[in-house]
Amino acid sequence: MKSRLLLLALPLALAACGGGNGDANSSAPAASPLPAVPAPAGQDWTQVVNKTAEGYVMGNPNAPIKLVEYGSRLCPACGAFAREGYEPLVNNFVKSGKVSWEFREFLIHGAPDLPPALLGICAGEATFFPVLEQMYQSQQGFNDKLQAMSPDQQKALQTAKPVDVIKALADQMDLINFVKQRGIPEAKARQCLGDMKEIDRLTKQTQDRGADGTVTGTPTFLLNGKPLKGAISWPDVQAALKNAGA
């Protein structure tokens, strides 16, 4: 409970986000191009989605190139990456079977990040990546609604119970209606917003990955377990994937 309350005590103003500095490993020697990997009969690799210990992964579970992204659904830099990179990443790299892409939540803004994260994982594998992409398309509207909270509203949240804070923020951003339009019933959505086990897991994941230095900003990318230093934009990541043989 202590760790969760620490996160929820953070201010509602959205913090700056963005990865570290450096050259996105551009100096690494280029690998030879890898062959495409056939998908299971009747499927393509973009339809293969599995839950992992920290997130959800799309694509060939045995892909030779594994891309991991730690992101926040309200982070403008993450949104810019998604709006430019989602389609080419999925269609040009994941679909080939050479690359898998795993998204892991990182609550860089604390409490405000919890409602979209909880609702994004609410329905599991079937809707995870479509809802993720559509949340990024609608991100500016969520952030505008969040910033429109009055000082009195914000003050009231400081003494509210954690679950009540999360539900109030979800209502402020109109996230219930957003997910209802994507097939998640309101009752299920509100149940997901109150899932204390998931709240604790996401909070611990954020604290652990910040403490061990894995994540210094969002988005943070790992390629085959190694950080892509300085990679924030789609061109950064695309160059690294091609350099790895994708």
UniProtKB/TrEMBL annotation:
InterPro entries: Thioredoxin-like_fold
Signal peptide: 1-15
Keywords: Signal
Domain Thioredoxin-like fold: start-end pairs: 53-242
PROSITE patterns assigned to the protein according to its UniProt record, in alphabetical order: PROKAR_LIPOPROTEIN (PS51257)
Keyword Chaperone assigned: no
Matching Pfam families: Thioredoxin_4 (PF13462)
Protein name, as recorded: DsbA family protein
Organism: Sphingomonas sanguinis
